[in-house]
From TrEMBL:
It comes from the Bacteria. Transmembrane segments: none annotated. It holds the Pfam family Glyoxalase_4. This is VOC family protein. InterPro entries: Glyas_Bleomycin-R_OHBP_Dase, VOC_core.
Length: 158
């Protein structure tokens, strides 16, 4: 069985944090790994970030990734601008923000529609900072008690 987004394989767990440098240090110590570099979420001209259906060029975050075979831990430190990350931090504090899935056997828009049919609401979407793909965060707090992130690599469908 492949689930409503074409897969049932979790590829990432995302944590929202207040201090990414302290968080990555602690995670590296816990995991016995090197600290990953910190990057940013990219420029709006590429990312085209939308939150609650509105363009939010000021929504940015610092990011760090711990990579494992087939899985990733993402640390996210949001700026003060409205975003799913900022809303989570202000409402819940630091912690697990999302589980991510690569969409499988369908395009992103179909996966989003399937999630909406399931009862989820689209919170935020945009392009990867290097333009190589896109993401969408859907609130599934009522249904699944978390946020679901959908990931799609490759050129955007026209």
């Amino acid at each position: 069985m492949s689930g409503i987004v074409g897969t049932n394989a979790v590829v990432q767990i995302g944590f929202v944090v207040r201090d990414i440098y302290e968080a990555k240090k602690k995670w590296a110590q816990f995991l016995g790994m090197e600290e990953p570099p910190v990057g940013d979420s990219g420029e709006y001209a590429i990312t085209r970030t939308q939150y609650q259906g509105k363009e939010v060029p000021e929504a940015k975050s610092l990011l760090a990734f711990f990579n494992f075979p087939g899985f990733q831990i993402e640390l996210i430190q949001p700026n003060e601008a409205p975003s799913t990350w900022r809303e989570f931090l202000d409402t819940h504090g630091e912690g697990i923000h999302h589980l991510a899935f690569n969409v499988g056997g369908m395009r992103m828009e179909q996966a989003i529609e399937n999630c909406r049919d399931f009862g989820m609401t689209l919170e935020q979407k945009g392009e990867y900072s290097d333009g190589s793909g896109r993401y969408a965060y859907l609130s599934a707090e009522k249904e699944l008690k978390t946020v679901i992130e959908l990931l799609e690599s490759g050129p955007k469908e026209a």
